[in-house]
Amino acid sequence: MTLEEESRLSFYRELTVLDEKKNIVLVQDIRNSELCVKKTLDIYSHDVYEQLASVRIEGVPAVKECVADDGKLIVVEEYVQGRSLKQVLDEQGLLNEEQAYDIAVQLADILVRLHQLEPAIVHRDIKPSNIIIEKNGHVNLIDFNAARHVNADKNEDTRMLGTVYFAAPEQFGFGQSDERTDIYGLGATINYIMTGDKPGAGIAECRFSDILKKCLMVDAKDRYQSAEELRGVLDMLNYSIVQDNRKKAETAFGKDNTISVVRTYRNIRDIIVKMYRKYQKRNYDIDTSWRRYLLPGFRRLNVVYCLIALVWYAVIVWMTITFAVTDSKTGIPVTGGELTMYKIAVFVLLFGMTMWFGNYLNIRRKLPGMKKINVLSTILTFGYAFTISFIFLAFFAIFMAIIGYL
Fold it and tell me: What stretches of 323-374 show up as alpha helix (H) in DSSP?
């Protein structure tokens, strides 16, 4: 461990032990009071955690630090408040079909994002205890200790990892793990939360029994070949359910009115989903190294982004310097100290909005409703920007009135 790595880890103050056996500790970042989880791993893929630290994936805790030390890996990641799916089952019993379907869809979405990475990450240990359900129903996939990158050159796994009953056959020497391994784990988990039975004891009787059967095929070739394919099938199932409900609605309200309502709903839903997909692909986590202190546009040290940022900051300076104001009563251009105050306000407003939309020092995630990357946070990003701008201009007008310029 280098001196720099020790310095970075020193920012996290230990609060309490969450799991002594697994070396999991709740810590707090003294810089911003954010709660995190610190884990010391004996079994891990350093490359996987390094990759997770470089991207932000909705439904996966953000990795803040990833430091190798004496054969172990120290990982600091976002603390997700909620209950594990195992705790939910222990406290409430088996879940119904609707609840299981919702979890399956969210898990499939997470897998799509993981498998689309370059290289793709396979979790390999999907089970109830590794799924956290927040109060709002949001699903998070945690514990990437067994995760690995897909390697097309290998015929089988070199290390057998995973949890019995939830792990696919290829994880025990019958082939190489790939994206289809996670599809098996998803199917086993969803079947279990509805039946309480491990794979082989029977498939849950529900509208998506056939989907679960295909997920749980012994031969990976017989399963869904990608998370995207599985997600599409789940969407088709949802569509058929909507169609059934539409037929019922036609009986109650009339065909023409129902078709209009359904089409409007689907159009709005499709627009929101497309916006959400595009939004969530961007990287919203700020680098945990010294680069996070650089201005937006420079943090990735990418030549193209840096050039664009330079142009934008030059535009801000140019707009500030050339800004002019004319007195509304006399029509005479404002000069002197009053003009200087206006120019300062213009600069602060433009620069401040750049910091806001550039998420400087992760400022956006500190406000209510902005913890997660979803449609709501997208809307709130612009809502907060408008509100902050309005408040700033209001205070500026009051200040100018006090010093006699208004």
Answer: 336-357
Q: Which fold has domain 3-78?
A: Phosphorylase Kinase; domain 1 (3.30.200)
pLDDT in tens, 317-340: 999 999 988 877 777 888 888 889
Dihedral over Cα of 80, 86, 91, 97: its sign = positive
Round to whole Å and give the CA distance between 373 and 59.
9
CB count in 10 Å sphere of residue 251: 10
Q: What percent of the chain has pLDDT over 90?
A: 46
3-state secondary structure at position 331: coil
CA atoms within 13 A on the CB side of 4: 5
Q: What architecture (CATH level 2) is domain 83-253?
A: Orthogonal Bundle (1.10)
- From-to residues of CATH 3.30.200.20 in the chain: 3-78
- Structural contact between residues 188 and 216, judged by C-beta atoms closer than 8 angstroms: yes
Distance, first Cα to last Cα, the chain: 59
Q: Encoding tokens for residue 132?
A: 């956290």
Nearest to 165 by CA among 210, 141, 130, 200: 200
| C-alpha distance from residue 128 to each of 37, 44, 138, 166, 389 (Å) | 19, 20, 14, 9, 45
* pLDDT band, very low/low/confident/very high, at 270 (cuts 50, 70, 90): low
Note the residue count of the chain. 406
The pLDDT, as a whole number, for residue 210 is 93
Confidence bin at 277 (pLDDT 50/70/90): very low
What letter would DSSP give residue 42? S
The stretch 80-87 carries a mean pLDDT of 92
Which one, of 318, 390, 321, lies nearest residue 353 by Cα?
390
The pLDDT of 110-133, averaged and rounded, is 93
Residue 127 structure tokens:
């089970």
For residues 139-144, give the mean pLDDT: 94
User: What local confidence, expressed as pLDDT, does residue 160 receive?
Assistant: 46
* CA separation for the pair 192, 323 (Å, rounded): 65
Closest CA relative to residue 364, chosen from 304, 279, 305, 274: 279
Alpha helices in 152-226 (DSSP H): 179-195, 209-215
Tell me: pLDDT of 151 over 70. Answer: no
In this prediction the pTM is 0.59
* Sequence ranges of the chain with CATH classification 1.10.510.10: 83-253
Question: How many Cα atoms are found within 13 Å in the side-chain-facing hemisphere of 207?
Answer: 19
